[in-house]
Structures are given as structure tokens and as C-alpha cells.
Amino acid sequence: MPATTLSRYADLPALVGLLTGNKKHQAAATTTLDVLWVLYDRVLDISPATATDPARDRFLLSRGHDPAAYYAVLAAKGFIDTAALRSWGEFDSPLGRRPDRTLVPGVEISGGSPGHGLGLGVGTALGLRAQGHGAARVVVLLGDTELDEGSSHEAITAAARLGLSALTAVVIDSRSSPLGRSGKIPDRFAREDWATRSAPGRDHDALHQALTAPHESRPLAVTVRTAARHPR
Predict the structure, then answer these.
(1) What are phi and psi of 202, to 5 degrees?
(2) Is residue 206 situated within a structural domain?
(3) Of 102, 111, 143, 146, which one has the greatest count of Cβ atoms within 10 A?
(4) DSSP letters of 35-74?
(5) pLDDT, average across residues 107-131
(6) 3 within a domain of the structure (yes/no)
């Protein structure tokens, strides 16, 4: 798939606009566009040229309502062709309603039910360490409702005990947890000995600082505060 690199934050709204249909979840995608951009533009050591390098950083999209923002950033960074955004969700398009790692360059995991991503992140970090690539960073983007899943709780509990300092959980706090746990996200991670940081969802410098802050030998949880309530 040929790629056209735009590499400008200002291009992202137009790229999201190329994706059409009622499955785009425009509001939810808007809440994560900034953090995705900061990750790919300023934090992650990953590019189209290194997308198959065993030592590359990994980004895992667990939050199910963000493929529009994710595809837009991948197009801006040259992983996929901009023209492909127009056909997303169509029968013969590689860009499905959920990203497919076998079809989309740069995608590390295929999307599915909420709650799987953090466990996959733990496994990925363990695998990289076993292969001698323990310095490669693994970043998982989650929604606050996913923290209500038992699989997420188990992953949170295991990560610090396994010393997975390369693992970062980025949690979008959109106050949508049906169990009322939104707003208390840092406490959940801190109780399990994670380092915790918080940042507003639109402030790129604050997001960058939170994502790159020293956290010793512990995994890092970054809570991203959004301005409105959106699902997952």
C-alpha cells in the first residue's frame, strides 16, 4: 500500500473527515486524536521504515471507538495511503471498523472486545524482554470502561509485580464507567505500584511530559482527561 506522508497535526481533521458513515464515532475519535498524535510524533520510536524491526516500540489500540483517529494518524505518518481512508469499512477495504493487524501496516493487534488490550500489552512486554528487546516500549490506549473488566484488573495487578517498566497504559477518562470508577483511575494503578501521571487531552506539551516522565522500574499509567463524556 503506497504511503503519502503529511506529518502535520493540522491535517488530522481533514483526514478524519475522509472516513464516512455512522460507525466512525466522531466524538470518541476526537477525544483521542491529540494523544495519538503526540505518541506517534514525539514519543514512540516507530516509523514505516521500522514497522517490522524487532526492537521497535509497540502501540496497541484497545479502546474500541478510536479507529477513525488511529487511521488518520497512521495516514499522516505514512503507514497507509491517504486515499484508503475514503473506502474504510467497505467490503474490499483493508481498513475495517476495527483495525486488522494482517491488513494494515503499523497495526500491532486486531481490535475486538474491550478489555483485551492491557493483557496483550503485558504479554507483549514479557515477550520482548525474553527476546532481548526489553528496552522497546509498549503503549496501550484504553478507555475508562475497560478498567471494569476482570482481565484489565489482572493485567494491572501482574504488570508491576513482573517489573514491566517498558509498559505504559494510556487511559482516556471520559467519565463513562458504569461502575462509577471514572475519576479514580490513578488510584487504581497506584495501589498496584504503578507510576501514575495525568494530563489534559488537548495539551500536547503536558501529554508529552506525562508520557516521558521518569518512572524508575515500574510500569506507567497516564490518565488523559477529556472535556466531555464519550463511550469507551
Answers:
(1) -105, -10
(2) yes
(3) 143
(4) HHHHIIIII----GGGTT-TTS-EEEE--TT-HHHHHHHH
(5) 92
(6) no
C-alpha cell at 208: 508529552
Q: Rounded CA gap, 81 and 75, in Å?
A: 6
Q: Which domain holds residue 169?
A: 9-225
Task: Decide if 205 contacts 38 (C-beta within 8 A).
Answer: no
Whether the full predicted model's pTM is greater than 0.85, yes or no, is yes
Q: What's the CATH number where 88 sits?
A: 3.40.50.970
Q: Within a domain: residue 197?
A: yes
Cα–Cα distance measured from residue 169 to residue 224, given in angstroms and rounded to the nearest whole number: 10
Give the phi and the psi of residue 222 in degrees, each rounded to 5.
-115, 120
Among the listed residues 4, 117, 145, 137, the one whose alpha carbon sits nearest the alpha carbon of residue 61: 117
4 within domain boundaries: no
Residue 143 phi/psi, 5° resolution?
-100, 160
- How many domains does the structure of the chain reveal? 1
